[in-house]
Amino acid sequence: MKLDSRAVHAGRELKPRDPLAPPIVQTAVYVYDDLDDYDAVARGERPGHVYARNSNENTQWLERAVAELEGAEAAVATGSGMAAILLALLSLAPRPGPLLVQRELYGVTLALLRQDFEPRGYEVRYIDFADLEAVRQGLDGAALAICETITNPLCKVVDLEAICRLAAEGRVPVLVDNTFASPALCRPLEHGATAVVHSATKYLGGHSDLTAGVVAAGGELTADIRARGVRMGTTLGPFEAWLASWRVRRGSRTPGACCQQVPGA
Q: Could you confirm whether 177 is annotated as catalytic?
């Protein structure tokens, strides 16, 4: 299917007599009358939910939608874009090491690196990602490379395919913030990125009335990210997840909807 069609159907498979608009599942806990059944769901051996900090129908629909649109195996929804970035950083670089960072990154991301990662022993290398030779040199010994498809707010665009190719040569994972481009304009995993993050507060949400984030990546990595999120309490609430997931689907039914969700359109 084309992107517009995938966006219409992404995240939720409708069956006969299902409501077209997804319901809001506003609950913290789920009822079980069999301990073995509870344990199987809690271990991920059976589908279902046990506690809203771990998972919820609404967050699951959003995760599936973004994963489908980004071409990822899975995704994890979070309470904000910064929560998504934090979890991705900790999962991709769990121990202090050199981080190669695009110097024009979103200001709060830079603040997170300077104030929370550098004091904990991470070496942060800030460089111009337009200089591919500098990128090549900076990747030497790096634990992770971090960039944005379109920077916030300077709107600089990197050669993502070249960056990922250089990183692959050195076996360095690449984390890409795809917030400003959205999957309508770019899908970083197709260019070799390891993981993609979004502030769904912006173009995926589209109406400035929710705060949310999403990480999309391979299944093993997202499992680690999800486990960290459960421990750290970065959970997205069901109402915000409902708003974001329903808007991805509903907005795509309108002609030119993808253009409405990208900067400058």
A: yes
